[in-house]
Design a protein that fits this description.
The protein is of the alpha+beta class. It contains 6 helices and 9 strands, in the order αββββαβαβαβαββα. Helix 4 packs antiparallel against helix 6. The protein binds zinc ion (ZN).
Length: 192
Amino acid sequence: MLKKGKQEIIKVGSILYERGLISGFDGNISQVFKNDKIIITASGVHKGFLRHKDLIVLDKKGKIIEGVGKPSSETKMHLEIYKNCPSARAVIHVHGPYAVAASLENEKEIDVSDLVEGKMLFNGKIKMVPSFKPGSEELAKKAGEIATKQNTFILKAHGAVSWGEDLFEAVSLLEALENNLKILALRKLFRK
Ligand SMILES: [Zn+2]
């Protein structure tokens, strides 16, 4: 069971890397295991080429149960989301380039209401956490608060976060978010 949970995270890391949503050492992935434990990527590891030893098992308060090295620098944010959103079983954070670029040109939220998918998945608006220091308590608190209102959102000048009932849902939401923002960027090329 634990092995399967780790394998799923390794696969997701590779997919996100192939899709250009994660590059090098950025981003972090976690999922709930046996209701009271969390498997999370270690800090400073390449998410495209994860190995079993790059994954750390924590309890819900963040205490290390298994693994060597430091858990992700955004562990506090993951824990806060799990605490505030009982149906969250997986959390992913990436530095998708379209999400980051769009966040620099918008305040508070990003309007995706012109897109059918944007309306369906995000209610036409993607919420945004203001710019806080990565890994900080403030970032974790604010992200945890916004996560109760929307399961996919942006960290200003930093990246995007999603949570789902499983990793598949969390990946799909992040892909959709990045795709929506890519279309809005491309739209400017076609504007007459
Ligand atoms: Zn980050």
